[in-house]
Each structure stands twice: as structure tokens, then as C-alpha cells.
Specification:
Pfam families: GntR (PF00392), UTRA (PF07702). One of its GO terms (biological process) is negative regulation of DNA-templated transcription. This is UTRA domain-containing protein. The protein is α+β, with helices and mostly antiparallel strands. It is built from eight helices and ten strands. Strands 4-5-6-9-8-7 form a six-stranded antiparallel beta sheet. Strand 8 and strand 9 form a beta hairpin. The two termini are about 20 Å apart.
Length: about 240
């Protein structure tokens, strides 16, 4: 129940900030006031405010409270859904292929531990830059075990979607995922793709997707530029 209350308050306050109910520099109601008015625990209120602070919507100022920051648009890039599904409903989402799908051996020191059968078959990999309203926001390296996906390299992606391609052509559906999120500085190559300076802070995400096919998992290494758009678990 706490999770539902926390998400509800988070979404309410975020929407009020986005539509201008609370403007830059405004002070949000105190934790005690929010707790009383929404009839929820103070710790639940604090969790919602922490999420807003992490996404750049507010700043916590000691002795003053939660102050609204200059707002940025938020993208649900940490959610379970694919890029086009999350972004395309509200913004214009486009993709540029940097490396077409090809069958290769797995990279050395791969970011997730692979099973022996995965290592044995090698992988299919490709690289993409994702744009939102012509702004590059995501660089993604995808890796699939090279078994049960005959013709993948030759046929390309259906509507630019990896999830749709796997589901329609190979009956492989994504059912869950796990991810490891870190803050890193852009190296020279990655900085060029985002049109930013080297060492610009980026969000790095290691992601492993679990599918309906036993022992078949899909992997992604993702970099996100949050300079213009924040990322979250919500759309």
C-alpha cells in the first residue's frame, strides 16, 4: 500500500509542477502538511519528495523545505516498455542505426555473467542512437544470444522495434527485466553521439531482459543524456 500512496503523491505533485500549479521558486507544502492532507505516513511523503528531487523537479533546502526547480520534461526510459512506446505517444521519437545487426563473439568482460550455453552460441549485436524531437537522448548497444533467431541480421527490425521483432518473428516475448544504473562521464566517442563535451555526466544502464523462452535473455548497455530530459520509471 505504501508504494501505491508514494506513486500517487509523486505523480500528483509532478503534474502540478508541470502545469504550473507550483512554479519555479515556489515552496511545496511541508512533509507534515502533505502527510495530513493525503492521510499517509510522513515516510511515504518523504519518499515521493526524494523521487522528485532525484529527477530535478525540486531542491531540498535545509531550514526551508522543498523548493520547485526549473522544470524539465520527463521520459519513462527506466520503465519496462520499449523506447518508441514510452516516448512516441507524447514526443517525436526517431532512431539512427550506428551498427547494423551482425553475428559476433561476446565482448570480453561482458557486463553480466553469461551462461555457458550463451557463450557457446555467440551473439547478435547492433547499436542505435535514439532521438526525442531531434535531440539525441539515448545510445543503446543490444546483445542477443545467436540461437533461435535465424535471419535476424538479414531482415532487420520490424518498425524499428527489437521487442516487436522478437515477438512477431520468433515468438520471444519480454516478460521482465533487471537493471543496474550508474552515473558516468562521457568518453570522446559517446560525447560525439550526444553532441556534448567529453566527461559530460550521463546515466549508464546495464539491463538484462528475461523472456518467455527458458534460458534466453536479451542484454542492453544504455547511455542516457539527461541534460534536457529527465528519466523515470513512469510515463
Amino acid at each position: 500500500m505504501e508504494t501505491a500512496h508514494y506513486q500517487k503523491l509523486y505523480a500528483l505533485l509532478k503534474s502540478q509542477i508541470q502545469v504550473g500549479r507550483f512554479k519555479e521558486g515556489d515552496l511545496l507544502p511541508s512533509e507534515n502538511d502533505l502527510s495530513a492532507s493525503h492521510k499517509i505516513a510522513r515516510m511515504t511523503v518523504r519518499r515521493a519528495l526524494m523521487e522528485l528531487a532525484n529527477e530535478g523537479y525540486i531542491k531540498k533546502i535545509k531550514g526551508k523545505g522543498s523548493v520547485v526547480s526549473a522544470t524539465r520534461k520527463s521520459l519513462g526510459l527506466l520503465s519496462f516498455k520499449g523506447f518508441s512506446e514510452v516516448v512516441g505517444t507524447e514526443y517525436q521519437a526517431t532512431t539512427m542505426m550506428l551498427r547494423l545487426p551482425e553475428a559476433v563473439v561476446w565482448p570480453e568482460r561482458f557486463f553480466y555473467k553469461l551462461a555457458r550455453q550463451e557463450e557457446a552460441v555467440g551473439c547478435v549485436t547492433f547499436e542505435r542512437v535514439r532521438f526525442v524531437d531531434q535531440d539525441p537522448v539515448m545510445l543503446e548497444y543490444s546483445y542477443l544470444p545467436n540461437v533461435g533467431i535465424e535471419g535476424f541480421c538479414q531482415q532487420g527490425l520490424l518498425d524499428g522495434s527489437l521487442f516487436k521483432t522478437l515477438s512477431v518473428r520468433y515468438h520471444i516475448d519480454i516478460v521482465s527485466f533487471e537493471q543496474d544504473i550508474r552515473a558516468v562521464g562521457a568518453d570522446e566517442r559517446i560525447a560525439q553521439h550526444f553532441n556534448v563535451k567529453p566527461l559530460t555526466p550521463l546515466v549508464q544502464i546495464y539491463r538484462r531482459y528475461h523472456t518467455n523462452v527458458p534460458n534466453y535473455q536479451v542484454y542492453s548497455l544504455i547511455y542516457c543524456n539527461t541534460e534536457k530530459y529527465t528519466i523515470s520509471n513512469y510515463q
